Amino acid sequence: MPLDITLFGIQMPTLLPIFVVTAVIQILLDRVMSDAGIYNHVWHPGLFRTAVFVCLFSIPCLLIYR
Amino acid sequence: MRANKIVLSELKIFPWQRTLHEWLSIDAPVLVYMAKVIIAALLALWIAMKLNMPDPRTAIFTVFIVMQPQSGLVFAKSYYRVLGTIAGVGISLVIVGMFSQDPLWFITFFALWIGLTTAAGFKYRNFQFYGFVLAGYTLCIVALPVIETPLDVFDIAVSRFSEVIVGIMCATVVSDVIFPRRLLDSLISSEQERFYNVLTTLSDPTAVFAAFDDTNPSVSRFSNGVVGLNAVRVNSSFESGADRKERHHYQHLNHEYMNLSTTFHSLKSIISAIKDRERTELLSALERLYAPIVSALKTRPDTVLTPEDLNRVLSELLEAKKGVQREYEYERLAFEREDEFTSAAYLIIRLLNELYNHCSTYLSLLKHRLSGDASQSLRVVQFSTHTDNVLVGLAALRGSGVLLLTMLFWIWTAWPYATLTITMAVVIGLLLGTLPSPLDGVKDFFKGSVIALIVAAVYDFYLIPAYTSDLLTLGLLLAPTLAFIGWMTTKPKLPIFSFGFVFMFMSQCALDPFYKIEPIKFLESSLAALIGVIFGGLAYLLVNFWSCSLTQKRVAKILRRQIVSVCEGALNIERSALESTGRDLVQQFSTQGRLNMRSSRLVFEWLLTTLEIGRAVLAIRRSLQRLYLQYQPPGIDSVLDSIKNYFEAPTLSGRERVLMQLHTSLQTLHEAQMPLEKAQLKRMQTLIVEMALIRTVLLNSSTFPVLTEDSCR
């Protein structure tokens, strides 16, 4: 994948749209997980949540920068 | 011997254990919070500087704006800060793109936007307010500096947005990962305290049957916190681990508590009226009616609630329901035709029913929290709010007015730093608008800014040039001040002072990527900002014709209008909507309007009157609709009509007429033939009870809707 993409005539790093998409996925996932009660079985919900986001965000990042 | 030893060792440990416990629960959270603030702020500064952002202080400032001890609050505020920044940046691009050559249009649209955001911010609660306000003043920050070079607006917009995002990411991650304190926990504990408080108050017959006195803490505690706890619940939804079902339960508990407290206060006001007339036999009959509830609550659990305890209380309450019903049938023989007895007995029964529901919802919540399966499925209830349009209009006027005034100042002086004056005045005019006393807030803000200027000067001209060589030393140097700010924000007495301090310190401290010594710029921009604060204060001084009696009149008018709309509007209004709207309204007026103690007491009584009458009118209309035609008592429509007319244009003669009509139609209802069918009979009885209740409430309320005394003196 390219490092920069052009959206509506504005050139921006590919990371930006990836970030937005990941954030949306994360919000949906968070809702599902909290309704399923997964956070009750996790030692540190905040850390877990952050870690999930880091995983989600870094997978496409690795694909770009490989 | 051995027991002795244990006691001795316990005694030895005891003093410092207690000290340790106290330190852990009171001082340690503050220290942890300070550490979190420092880490988040320096992280934001480091990232912003590493990414070569033009203005790293926006990032660090954002951290301080959104940072709160509980992570739910941080998420909520961050969310609305992002939304507000997006809106503000977008509108700046549009306005600069369209009107940068034309001052008149530029200023007009600027003022419109500020007015619009102020009005919208006023209409919404919690941090939504902050989002709108931010959308307003971001326009100042982005559009004003580039007015000479409009082509730069895109760069400023992008950098402002990315700095805000960096600050928010740092604040949210740090507050959720390092020693998180969840808002939900505080919600749980305050809900527990409130529930316990309900049980204690209701188990004490003197709390119910004693005269109104403000010294009895359990009685005065029994009304507050409805609006506040709702806000906590809304904000906690951003936290991890708060599943929807649990929040749903809290919402329900809040509503039931609201209904319970309304019933309780209505009952108390009727009883105190009976007391004033010294009708002891009626009073003792009511006390006998209440006795089963007292004995049922005798076995209430003390502090820690388990589902088993609550189950026992529930079954006792079920017994009490039967007991009250028996007593009612018995006492009714003596007081059949007495409106006061009918309405008070009805309220006692309603209180018991609501208490039962409240307990069973609480039980369901407990079960859900312990084992994950709730015993109840709940209806969705909404917390509706109401904002007075006059207040909104006033705020919009103030926002736009202060902008126009400072714009004139800018044009007139042609001072390049006057843009800062405009920004500061708009920020003050928007942000402090919802405080109880904005003028005092502006004073605090001013004090905070002046002290911040001194501190910033020491940093700019002595500490930073003398001791910093790289980011690490800058961070070390900044840490004490950041910790101090963090400490200030935990103090409930200093919020505006610390806000002023943060605002000024962050805008004046030399946190640029490249350090420059510019004393003239420092002095001029500080002066401009301070003038801006003064302009903002001036706006609050000028647009503040909101006196006590005017507030009372507005509240009375809105409450009256509510009853009128209930009399003629749609039938599908829920009681919860009626109640939450009224409470939210009164809460807002008591912070916005200038009410003294006596007047706020009066306003609360008016609210109760409105809620009872509104609910009763709805119940009457519903029963009428479902009653068969042959049982329809004549003249009830005309009673409703005259109630409506009375509340539309209250006069003393109208009051007499309504009371008279209520009395005669109650007479005819008592003499009418009762239907045999059970459901129909129940509707007839509802009619009687509700009419009696309206009559009693109207008789008791001497100040509403006809305002007879001036309590504002």
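qc> The mean pLDDT of chain B is 81.
qc> done
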